[in-house]
């Protein structure tokens, strides 16, 4: 009984310490209801740097709070997401290459059209205009600075 009570008390803490993520399909409706800047995080499951970065960012409560309160966040697994995605008036699909492949949207968002660099961060303003583009690890200090700059607009 004591263990169950402790577990139930800790569940909300785990929930609150995560970045809230949405989907591309929800973004259009969300923007109509409440326009906010958007962050698109493009990653791959096999990317060790992506996992390290996610761990660092999820530990920083200031970043979590800033993102959850003022931004829409879309985490996009570029090589496993196979459904069609509609984004900014265009439809993107999955490009299969045997047992692997990549989503067209990942290529469209990336400056490197052959193979995106992971992790990839794209920050859009309330009007979905590009504000910041970053390939590779984004350290918490730099992330905080960008969040403050963009949310101040």
Protein model, in words:
With 153 residues, the chain is α+β, with helices and mostly antiparallel strands. Helix content is 42%, strand content 24%. The chain is built from 6 helices and 8 strands, in the order ααβααβββββαββα. The chain has helices at 2-16, 24-33, 48-59, 61-70, 104-109, 140-151; strands spanning 38-43, 72-77, 85-87, 90-92, 94-97, 100-103, 120-124, 130-135. It has a 4-stranded mixed sheet, sandwiched between helices. Strands 3-4 form a two-stranded antiparallel sheet. The chain has a two-stranded antiparallel sheet with strand order 5-6. A hairpin with a 2-residue loop joins strand 3 (85-87) and strand 4. The longest helix has 15 residues, at 2-16. It is globular.
Set out the fold topology.
Blueprint: H1 2-16, H2 24-33, E1 38-43, H3 48-59, H4 61-70, E2 72-77, E3 85-87, E4 90-92, E5 94-97, E6 100-103, H5 104-109, E7 120-124, E8 130-135, H6 140-151
Parallel strand pairs: 1-2
Antiparallel strand pairs: 1-7, 3-4, 5-6, 7-8
């Amino acid at each position: 009984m004591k263990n169950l009570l402790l577990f139930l008390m800790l569940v909300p803490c785990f929930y609150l310490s995560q970045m809230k993520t949405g989907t591309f399909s929800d973004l259009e409706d969300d923007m109509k209801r409440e326009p906010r800047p958007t962050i698109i995080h493009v990653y791959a499951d096999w990317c060790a740097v992506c996992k390290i970065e996610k761990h660092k960012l999820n530990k920083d409560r200031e970043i979590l709070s800033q993102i959850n309160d003022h931004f829409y966040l879309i985490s996009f697994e570029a090589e496993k997401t196979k459904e069609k995605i509609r984004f900014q008036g265009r439809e993107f699909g999955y490009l299969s290459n045997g047992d692997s492949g990549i989503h067209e949207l990942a290529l469209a968002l990336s400056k490197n059209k052959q193979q995106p660099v992971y992790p990839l961060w794209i920050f859009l303003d309330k009007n979905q205009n590009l504000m910041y583009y970053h390939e590779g690890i984004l350290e918490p200090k730099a992330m905080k600075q960008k969040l403050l700059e963009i949310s101040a607009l």
